[in-house]
Predict the structure.
Amino acid sequence: MVRASIPNNVNLDMTSASGLFLDHYQDQFRQWWDDVVPSEFREVPMYLRCPVGCDRAGWADFRFVKPGEYRWGLFQTPMTERQIRFGDRAGESVWQTVPEEHRDLLLKHIRVQADAEPGSVEQSANLARCAPSNYDLRNLYQFLLEEGRHLWAMVHVLVEHFGQAGEDEGHALLHRSCGSDSDPRLLDAFNHSIDEWLSYFIWCVLADRDGKYQLSTVSHGAFDPLARTAAFMLFEEPFHLSIGTQGIERVLRRSAELMQQHDSEDIFEHGGIPLAVIQKYLNYWSPRVLDLFGNDESRRAREAFEAGIRARPYEPSCSDHDGQSEQLMVDRRDGDVLNQVQVLEVDALNTAMRRRFVEEVQVVIRRWNRILDAHHIDTRIYLAHERFNRHIGPAKNLHFDPQGQAISAEQAQQQQSSWLPSDDDRRRLKSLMQQELRPDHYASWIAPPTVAINNKPLAGFAYVKTADTASENTVEVPHA
Ligand SMILES: [Fe+2]
Ligand SMILES: [Fe+2]
């Protein structure tokens, strides 16, 4: 296999131990990618954003690239004079190398964070085969390629700073796989593969937003190479979130139109997704993503905070450095009962972060509901209560309704198919997932987009040049 050079702004020395490892890792990575991502689009030009570095001209170029020729680069934001702003070492300079006393904690953290990147590629890659439009296929590839790049970025940090243990982790990242019985992804949410676009859009709204929070914790952290790597990933993440937010907006617009046209809520037979089904899928995914934040009260989160490894995502706006000045109410379990107790922020960092996350999601949901309102539809989309259907935290395996009220196991069982997708919902949703790649055409269940990519026209422009694309686009001179 001919290895390509690795685009980077990290002064990668290809003769160093980490340079040599990464050079070889390309083969293994490419093998994994080819196993996971459908091969039929490998040679199809797509209008993609490619990172180029950090300068005044911007951090990325848009150009037509074949996925088979995309190069997963290594990029960090520039090094600046920076002090640790929180924890026991607040006021000291950030670390350029790994302090021996925090080596295990850091490695453990990076390992879990990195595992999410290939996990999300594995989860969604097959959606390329049922993309609802040319535009959406392009967005999916942008997402997949960037999640692949994030894997590269994390492997770079691992091998550059953790020697053999980092190299072992680099290999393990490609060996674990989504949903595997013997070697699954480390976090449960990444072990559920996705075969329809409704879940994918919800996933981008929720899980990529969780990703944004997790990246923010280390981008303010003391380990500078990880902080700058995460800060560059945070340039890419907002687009992933917007794929989801706008995707659901388009689904809702289309569902609302069909409901009006046919004066019916059950619009499956008219090619649309019923609002009740959208709600059930949101109910399915939201607890899984809330679980990603970890236990409500967490000694481990406190330890990582005090060590300087993980900040609060909103650290720059915090008035204290030790998490001792704010308090919050959390559920604490006593047998099968939850009691509300007041605790210091430093003892419930995961909860504090999750609550910010929930507030942000509520803003998005309010925007979605305005679409329903504009169509004179009374149904409202909502986010289930943080206790609903949880597998981590104090509510783990207890029964609550989506409003957070305790219910019996029988009640939970009876309501299962009204709160969560039934087999029939899954089958009918899956049957709508027909590939549509002709420019300006959209699958029956989704409205056309209203937001263009890099100011390209929304109509008459093929974001992916498949054989179906009638018009030949002019390849633009790349600009940032
Ligand atoms: Fe990512
Ligand atoms: Fe992402």
Q: What stands out?
A: The first helix runs from residue 17 to 36. The pocket of fe (ii) ion (ligand 1) is lined by residues 117, 147, 150, 211, 233 (CB under 6 Å).
